[in-house]
């Protein structure tokens, strides 16, 4: 069962779109928004994954919708937002969660791979946000949350996605200023290492490196999907009505840990998780 600290029904009448909503963190976010009363479209590239996800959303009936959409393709992005607006009449919330990358030393990244990662993580986020604004939020207002990463000290062996996510952090501020007067808030959530089914997309070596990560860094544990989703839900909620252009770090303080400072070790940080 999903665990939420938010009040029943707070998103009743709201319409949300979650990209990459078919699996992992995106699906967990979609479930929380549905649970709180919103209608939610999950968008993804893979029909089979969306179909499996929709089975888990059956209890929400017509309030859940799945849409095939490659966020790199402007036509597909426009069609996706059009479908949501046609079905539900508007779009209040956009969660730019879809992303993808592959681990590689910088010297070996080919231009094609570089462009693909920038296209998905930076351009895709821009295209989705622009379409959401032009097709609904410019007249109805709304809130956008972008999912980025803990790339504050660079992102070794993931230089392409580090650059793209840093770009989204900056885009968040530009859009917040440009669209604020239309009642649109744009924020980002910078996730640390979250244990999610998204990990299955990586090769075994990268998975091993990821799993080793928490042994070296406080808080000595992975974040949960519930913790990632809670931060997104907060930023969409009325509790964040005066927050825009901000990036909220959800990483257990991992980037603050430094070999330059004394080691203050209180052990593993407690977690918020689903029941
Ligand atoms: N998830 C990863 N890459 C994606 C893309 N290009 N479109 C939609 N979802 C994605």
TrEMBL record:
It comes from Candidatus Seongchinamella marina. It is found in: Peroxisome. It catalyses: (2E)-tetradecenoyl-CoA + NADPH + H(+) = tetradecanoyl-CoA + NADP(+); (2E)-hexenoyl-CoA + NADPH + H(+) = hexanoyl-CoA + NADP(+); (2E)-decenoyl-CoA + NADPH + H(+) = decanoyl-CoA + NADP(+); (2E)-dodecenoyl-CoA + NADPH + H(+) = dodecanoyl-CoA + NADP(+). The keyword Membrane does not apply. Its EC number is 1.3.1.38. The keyword Cytoplasm does not apply. Participates in chain elongation of fatty acids. Catalyzes the reduction of trans-2-enoyl-CoAs of varying chain lengths from 6:1 to 16:1, having maximum activity with 10:1 CoA. Has no 2,4-dienoyl-CoA reductase activity. Its main location: other. Keywords: Fatty acid biosynthesis, Fatty acid metabolism, Lipid biosynthesis, Lipid metabolism, NADP, Oxidoreductase, Peroxisome, Phosphoprotein. Transmembrane segments: none annotated. This is Peroxisomal trans-2-enoyl-CoA reductase. Pathway: Lipid metabolism. Interacts with PEX5, probably required to target it into peroxisomes. Pfam families: adh_short_C2. It is an enzyme of class 1 (oxidoreductase). CDD domains: TER_DECR_SDR_a.
């Amino acid at each position: 069962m999903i665990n939420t600290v938010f009040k029943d029904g707070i998103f009743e009448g709201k319409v949300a779109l979650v990209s990459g909503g078919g699996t992992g963190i995106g699906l967990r976010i979609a479930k929380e928004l549905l649970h709180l009363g919103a209608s939610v479209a999950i968008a993804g590239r893979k029909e089979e994954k969306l179909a499996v996800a929709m089975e888990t959303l059956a209890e929400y009936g017509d309030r859940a919708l799945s849409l095939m959409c490659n966020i790199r393709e402007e036509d597909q992005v426009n069609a996706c937002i059009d479908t949501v607006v046609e079905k539900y009449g508007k779009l209040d919330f956009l969660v730019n969660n879809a992303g993808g990358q592959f681990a590689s030393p910088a010297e070996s990244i080919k231009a094609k791979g570089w462009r693909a990662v920038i296209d998905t993580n930076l351009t895709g986020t821009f295209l989705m946000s622009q379409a959401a604004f032009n097709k609904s939020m410019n007249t109805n207002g709304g809130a956008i949350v972008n999912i980025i990463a803990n790339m504050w000290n660079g992102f070794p062996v993931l230089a392409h996605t580090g650059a793209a996510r840093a770009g989204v952090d900056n885009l968040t501020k530009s859009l917040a200023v440009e669209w604020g007067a239309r009642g649109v808030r744009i924020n980002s959530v910078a996730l640390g290492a979250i244990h999610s089914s998204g990990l299955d997309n990586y090769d075994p070596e990268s998975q091993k490196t990821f799993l080793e990560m928490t042994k070296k860094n406080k808080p000595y544990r992975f974040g949960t999907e519930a913790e990632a989703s809670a931060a997104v839900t907060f930023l969409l909620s009325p509790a964040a009505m005066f927050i825009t252009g901000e990036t909220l770090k959800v990483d257990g303080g991992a980037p603050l840990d430094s070999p330059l400072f004394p080691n203050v070790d209180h052990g593993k940080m407690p977690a918020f998780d689903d029941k």
